[in-house]
Amino acid sequence: xxxxxxxxxxxxxxxxxxxxxxxxxxxxxxxxxxxxxxxxxxxxxxxxxxxxxxxxxxxxxxxxxxxxxxxxxxxxxxxxxxxxxxxxxxxxxxxxxxxxxxxxxxxxxxxxxxxxxxxxxxxxxxxxxxxxxxxxxxxxxxxxxxxxxxxxxxxxxxxxxxxxxxxxxxxxxxxxxxxxxxxxxxxxxxxxxxxxxxxxxxxxxxxxxxxxxxxxxxxxxxxxxxxxxxxxxxxxxxxxxxxxxxxxxxxxxxxxxxxxxxxxxxxxxxxxxxxxxxxxxxxx
Length: 284
Fold this sequence. Notes:
Layout (H helix, E strand, L loop, with lengths): L4 E4 L6 E4 L8 H14 L1 E4 L6 H11 L12 E4 L13 H8 L14 E10 L7 E5 H6 L3 H7 L3 E4 L1 H6 L20 E3 L1 E3 L6 E3 L5 E2 L6 H15 L5 E4 L6 E5 L3 E5 L10 E8 L2 H4 L3
Parallel strand pairs: 2-3
Antiparallel strand pairs: 1-2, 3-13, 4-15, 5-13, 5-15, 6-12, 6-14, 7-8, 7-11, 9-10
């Protein structure tokens, strides 16, 4: 295998990795990939065109795959239905896809949060449909000392019911992954990365209701942190090409899909999510 090449982006996060075949990653190459994962948090592998089986195998290098349903390790994030038609406004699927266009961290609403994810592009709309990431490590670092002290001991509840309700989507218990009949997990606003020790903001669309604050005060603070953190050079937006694969660290980033024409253009992405370590990702 050729020597892995790593080229950092012009941002506080992200690197492009080339001269690597994700279907044939040996142990030495994996060690270099993992070190880059901890340093850059977003790893871009252009033009890989991996199969579903290879996708799962590569995701498993990072840890246990988070099953989105019993026995389901790989899911398609797509507005394209099995018959080739496109999901329309008002449908549950369309509302879920609209929701992920808001900054979030995967599975923060689950008792066990996510370690990371691996996304592969299958079909891309001609306009829009990018994915954008925000570096919550650099976002925290850039806060004033006064703000750092203010949020040092604060936590927020995380709920997919809540975040979907903010776009007008009312969902019943049992409607899909994340809509479980359990209490919303409570997570600190400042997360310490279990491998690097770096602090990062843990906020996003699922976060709400900070204990000790009323709802308006809580929302105002969370919005203020979000707007401040998600600014260049702490962000990167990727223009997908079919076959691209991107892995990212949910323990220190947020991300969002960018809007596109859901009614007339297909966007088909294949996704595996990496389960977090219970010692660091299990919520109170």
